[in-house]
Please model this.
Amino acid sequence: MKTKDKNTLFWVAAGVGALAALRTAVRSLTAYDFSGKTVLITGGSRGLGLVLARQLATEGAKLVLCARDATELENARLELAGKGAEVLVQQCDVTDRQQVNDMITNVQNEFSPIDVLINNAGIISVGPVAEMTEHEFEEAMNVHFWGPLYMTLAVLPSMKARGGGRILNIASIGGVVSVPHLVPYSASKFALVGLSEGLRAELKKYNITVTTATPGLMQTGSPGHAIVKGHHKEEYTLFKLMDSSPLTSEPAEKSARKMLNALRHGDAGVTTTAFATVGELLHRLSPELTTDVLALVNAALPGEGGIGKNRVSGHESETPLSDSWLTERTKKAAMRNNE
Model:
């Protein structure tokens, strides 16, 4: 290579490096500081919500956790308060607009105005679409679309009045690429992605930043709470194995850090786990090829039948394989995360 060409490459590389360093410096200077901020997390009593709460507590955030189960909420409160966090728990069903409005009013009057809202509450139904009923679709939409919408509409007046705020909507890679045997879940997460991206565009003028997270499978310990239909034992075993495998999932703590970093820097979106990132890229390049591949995956999944349209929990669907050493990561996560 000629000396002139070498010099050109050197200066190009130096310029790229300088721009990267400048970008990092600017992001660091403009990063949102969670210390002293009041952060409300829906579904915050266990799983990913609790993991996020722990990480925010280490940064000095004031926490408000809401969920439906009073015992789980109290367990989470005791853990976090025991580590010095300032935490308030609120029993609330996010699918009930009146409960949401009452909770937000109570928190803002009796505790603190809400600076950050994290819409995390979720539900999942596993099985062939032929075994799903309208109920599973309505249930998923209520939790993943209407719940975040009710929460957002309830906190917006205060955020606007105070000149800013942050919202993190935790959707799923299933809201970008629809996954076989998770159709109600995926359809509702698609709706949440659309809501979240539209809100980001409209709320920017109020200095309210909306970030959309589309994580892949995370080891939160939550599969036991899944609703399973059809050949439920086979469905659940496959689901739990994928949830626990390092090839298809990652620790919830790792995903949570990525999501909070995206939120602090005001990023539009963040996808976590390598498996989900590859799936998202493939879908962008060729939606047709992606669905063809997923059709092959679907052909290998359990068919219709079994318990049919009846519903059981993951806990009721355990098999020797789903409870084996192959799912040790999920079992340990369940113990850690109040699941």
